[in-house]
Design a protein that fits this description.
The protein contains 14 helices and 13 strands. The chain is an alpha/beta fold and about 350 residues long. The chain folds into 2 domains: about 190 residues, Glycogen Phosphorylase B (Rossmann fold, 3-Layer(aba) Sandwich), CATH 3.40.50.2000; about 150 residues, 3-Layer(aba) Sandwich (Rossmann fold). Helix 1 packs across helix 13 and helix 6 packs across helix 11. The longest helix has 19 residues. The protein starts with a strand and ends in a 10-residue tail after the last helix.
């Protein structure tokens, strides 16, 4: 199958440091290639991939200070995709609703994976107008605010099985916070939980420009506490040691998290997750198996005391069963095939060219 993956331009694919959507696009792209498919990636020029790379902007927007309007490069990329659309069997966008006006017209089948929150009131009119636009959610909770959208499936994120693995020689001794410093991620609550549990907290997190004032006023004063170690951003190569050394990942979010990639990154390393019951967390973490779903700080502190009741090897097993990039890619191939069938029913096998296991047939 000839597949186009269209990524946001904010970060390279994959990002050098923090970046959720672009990282998932990278994992999906490489897994589809492993399954034998012909994949083209539309992304920034500093991206790294085994796919055919169509450079939509010379470098990621985060690393290009000359760009003041990030929408402009994305519109250029959409036109680039439109002109090349006949070369593909399926177009897979990761740009929220931006493709809807152009690609809802007859042509190459397309779908959009929605990676962000959908509870904003201004989104409902968009999905009412483009009610036929085919979309995929990354959790059931994410899609709840837009029940009438044209949902094709819910497909959880996946990470390559060999990318993040447990380091058995590392003794877990601290609690971890991984991701981004922002009001909704509540690093302040992670600091409080660790303090009340009497444990060291290591924070590996990015501070976006938009969140610098929040970081300076709310989080930075808390970092002077003796049980807090702020590491800043870490890269992919540093994550196995960071997560394997953690007794648990703290995920005390205060917003409707659409998925939460950090949770399955921790599980890949055999590290349990203690997550507040918001958004997708109860769909990702199996309470009492891969971690604990809690309601507040007090329950989280109690959960820390119960971590010895969890098997780290079982946490890793559950990751392998549910959240690998191969599993994600196979789920998407089912969606691609369904869209292709709807557009060209007699050509299913010739166009899709996939077997029941998702591997390209000769």
């Amino acid at each position: 199958m000839r597949i186009a993956q269209i990524a946001p331009l904010d970060e390279a694919v994959p990002p050098a440091l923090y970046g959720g959507t672009e990282r998932v696009v990278s994992y999906l792209t490489e897994a589809l290639i492993d399954l034998g498919h012909d994949v083209t990636l539309f992304a920034s020029g500093d991206s790294r991939t085994r796919a055919h790379l169509e450079v939509a902007w010379p470098q990621s927007l985060r690393s290009d200070p000359s760009v003041c309007d990030p929408l402009a490069p994305h519109l250029v990329m959409l036109e680039q995709v439109r002109r090349k659309a006949p070369d593909f069997d399926i177009l897979h966008f990761h740009l929220s609703y931006l493709p809807f006006p152009v690609f809802s017209q007859p042509g190459t089948p397309f779908l959009t994976t929605l990676h962000g929150r959908l509870d904003l009131p201004e989104l409902r009119p968009v999905f009412d107008v483009f009610s036929e636009a085919p979309v995929v959610s990354i959790s059931e909770s994410q899609r709840a605010p837009l029940p009438s959208a044209n949902w094709l499936d819910t497909i959880p994120h996946g990470v390559p099985a060999s990318l993040l693995t447990p380091l058995p020689h590392v003794q877990p001794t601290y609690l971890a916070f991984l991701g981004r410093i922002s009001p909704e991620k509540r690093a302040d609550l992670a600091i409080e939980i660790a303090g009340r549990a009497g444990m060291l907290l290591k924070i590996a997190a990015k501070v976006d420009k938009a969140d610098e004032a929040y970081f300076r006023s709310v989080i930075e004063p808390l970092l002077a506490q003796p049980h807090v170690d702020f590491l800043g951003e870490i890269n992919e190569a540093e994550k196995p040691a960071f997560l394997s050394g953690a007794r648990a990942l703290l995920f005390p979010i205060d917003w409707p998290e659409p998925f939460g990639l950090a949770m399955i990154e921790a599980m890949a390393c055999g590290t349990p997750v203690i997550a507040f019951n918001r958004g997708s967390t109860a769909e990702v973490v199996e309470h009492g198996v891969t971690g604990y779903i809690v309601g507040d700080v007090t329950e989280a502190v109690r959960a820390v005391a119960q971590l010895d009741g969890l098997s780290r090897s079982r946490v890793r097993d559950q990751f392998e069963n549910r959240f690998t990039s191969r599993t994600m890619a196979l789920r998407y191939l089912d969606v691609y095939t369904g869209l292709t069938v709807a557009r060209h029913p007699p050509l299913l096998r010739a166009v899709a060219g996939v077997g029941h296991d998702g591997v390209l047939e000769p």
